[in-house]
TrEMBL record:
The keyword Oxidoreductase applies. Signal peptide: none annotated. Keywords: Oxidoreductase. InterPro entries: AKR, AKR_Detox_Biosynth, NAD(P)_OxRdtase_dom_sf, NADP_OxRdtase_dom. Belongs to the aldo/keto reductase family. Aldo/keto reductase 2 subfamily. This is 1-deoxyxylulose-5-phosphate synthase YajO-like. GO terms for molecular function: oxidoreductase activity. The keyword Oxidoreductase applies. GO terms for cellular component: cytosol. Residues 19-329 form the NADP-dependent oxidoreductase domain. PANTHER family: NAD(P)-LINKED OXIDOREDUCTASE SUPERFAMILY PROTEIN, NADH-SPECIFIC METHYLGLYOXAL REDUCTASE-RELATED.
Length: 355
């Protein structure tokens, strides 16, 4: 099994995860995203993922309104629990006190997630997004209590800004709380904004990045053509048809007009052809060769999609020349103050932060 994937420490922790994480937002009926996997199909994907060496599952209490967690739970209770790293998230919900990152909602949400997952603990518990309404000290204290109670083993963040993540880091230190070990964010060849601040925070503070939407809703799979409509059944087709605003799956009519996007897609296709791989595998591998990335989250609606994405895990690398070309074509133009700071510190950069 070891030759089918690689295992990496998650951030600065002692927890090892497969470098491909199985995202389970596709599990369970959900009116928001049609074409989801039923329980049987989801379990088949989980079984094959494990056969390919995967041990890292990511979900959230809001995915399919809790059904994703339930499907994982019905599968997990038939497995050796300690073999798998299960991550879920808290933030969204319904009701006056049934949403956000208050102590009240966090305490209720973890118990609901544990019940659906049919387990006594969650390996990684992540805030799904910053909550402007709740003092972060309240959130940090509540989450730390879950670790002390054994309901949660590690803590992580998702969808936060650079200052918010640094605030979490500094308060955790000053309050004597458990260190947060991971950051789950959108990161791909078409979305590199986290490199302006969040990557630096993670690199300096020992936080492992877990990218979501590595294929930008399928745009980087090679199956989209500028002159055609988005393929039926794809998430981008649904978003475009409904006029939805969904991160990770952009409106295709807008994308058609973006020359830079198609240059990046073409560069990905060229690298794939040279390596004898698929464009999706190249897009995922590009992330895996970034030093701050611990594991990349993939989603799959079929075994074929799973097999293709897992083909990025191990056994080959994108060459330095190809990485440089992909980096260059996908580079985002920095704005102030990033452009100024980068230019003025170009001769002051340490190769090793510990030097």
């Amino acid at each position: 099994m070891a030759d089918k994937t690689e295992y990496r420490f998650l951030g600065g922790s002692g927890l090892k995860v497969s470098n491909i994480c199985l995202g389970t937002m596709t599990f369970g009926d959900w009116t928001l995203l049609p074409g989801q996997c039923d329980e049987a199909a989801s379990h088949a994907i989980l079984d094959r993922y494990v056969e390919l060496g995967g041990n890292f599952l990511d979900t959230a209490d809001m995915y399919a309104e809790g059904r994703s967690e339930e499907i994982i739970g019905s599968w997990l209770e038939k497995q050796q629990r300690e073999k798998f790293i299960v991550a879920t998230k808290v933030r969204f919900g319904k009701g006056i006190n049934g949403v956000g990152l208050s102590r009240h909602h966090i305490m209720q949400s973890i118990d609901d997630s544990l019940r659906r997952l049919r387990t006594d603990y969650v390996d990684l518990y992540q805030i799904h997004m910053w909550d402007e309404a709740v003092p972060i000290e309240e959130t940090l204290s509540a989450l730390n209590d879950l670790v002390r109670a054994g309901k949660v083993h590690y803590l992580g963040a998702s969808n936060v800004t650079g200052w918010q993540l640094q605030k979490i880091v500094e308060l955790s230190k000053s309050m004597g709380l458990n260190k947060w070990i991971s950051l789950q964010v959108e990161y791909n060849l078409l979305c590199r904004g986290i490199e302006w601040e969040l990557v630096d925070v993670c690199r300096r503070e020992g936080i492992g990045i877990i990218p979501w939407s590595p294929l930008k809703g399928g745009l980087l799979t090679g199956k989209f053509k500028r002159e055609d409509d988005a393929p039926e059944g794809t998430r981008i087709a649904v978003v475009t048809k409904k006029g939805m605003d969904l991160e990770g799956a952009p409106d295709f009519e807008r994308i058609k007009k973006d020359d830079k996007t198609w240059k990046i897609i073409d560069a990905t296709k060229n690298a794939a052809e040279a390596a004898g791989k698929t464009p999706a595998q190249v897009a995922i591998r590009w992330l895996l060769q970034k030093d701050v990335v611990s594991s990349v989250i993939i989603g799959a609606k079929s075994l074929q999609q799973l097999e293709d994405n897992m083909g990025a895990a191990t056994g080959w690398e994108i060459t330095e020349e190809q990485m440089a070309e992909l980096d260059t074509v996908s580079q985002m133009e920095p704005t102030y103050p990033y452009r100024l700071l980068t230019r003025m510190n170009s001769d002051r950069v340490r190769k090793n932060m510990c030097q």
